[in-house]
Amino acid sequence: MSSSNIEIFRSGTFNFDIGPSRTRFTLHKKLVSRHSEPLDRLMHGGFKESQLGVGTIDDIEPETFARFAEYIYSGDYSVAEPLKNDVEEEDQGSGTDEEAWTWKSARRKKPRGLAQLSLPSPDRGEAVEVGSEAEEASAQLEGQPPDSPTDSIPPEAPEPDMPFSPVRSVSLRSSSSGDYRHGPVSPQHVPFQIDPAPGPNKSASDDYSPIFMCHAQVYVFAQEFIIPDLRTLAASKLSDSLNLFHCYSRRAGDITRLIRHVYTNTPDPESAPSPLREVVVRYAANNFKVLISSTEFEDLLAGKGSFAPDEFASAENPM
Fold first, then answer.
1. Is the pLDDT of residue 145 over 90?
2. Which of 11, 84, 132, 257 shows the smallest number of beta carbons within 10 Å?
């Protein structure tokens, strides 16, 4: 074992009471100090907290601090679970919303091809054919011929609010405030299980706002307590989550609230937007036609904040 790791486990622990509920976290002091100078000062600054071995942080959610704790021990953190909202049938994407799109009829003539979707294998990174082969094998077991390609489309699959198009990746650029690159590598071995991120949303009833907000809150925490690597990871994970998220019109409010949170809790930069702002601005630009149908998004654009100028600049300079 590395001598520096031995020092961590011999250094003792410190108690953090987090949020209004005073949820207690007990972490190794050396490990916390390795990642955050402000938290190091809290533990060793000679104040009452350092003498008692207990520090209180009121304005941080316990879930956010728990993700910080996961990160310092493993290099990664768990993602929140999506919610399932009840949405009326006409809100699932078919009907009035699609009538507004002039290119709807041309797209709807094409089969959606859900039964032929290729997904990456989680173990080998290889493409796995989903639908036709599995359906054929199932039909052979039951002694029935496989369904036709049109029958293989699940009848309950909702028509999207707008035609699907290839996802345009929201990447992170290098920044003068730090090296923000898309997809920091997570460690291959972690001491405890990290909950993986969920896959793409499948209908307008899938509420992914807890996922988006957990990454934004981790970013803001890392910004406040000067943890650059965690800030990079949070921005990258938000980018990855948005790249998988199909923006149904009924979910436009979720994106608008995410943007408000990001712009409220990140400082106005002197030059380029912060990496987190860049992620949400790019996603909004890529999905502008859907988002603009939301009154909340219209109000956000009409406001006096920094988002509208950033959004219009992004639209003029697409990646």
1. no
2. 84
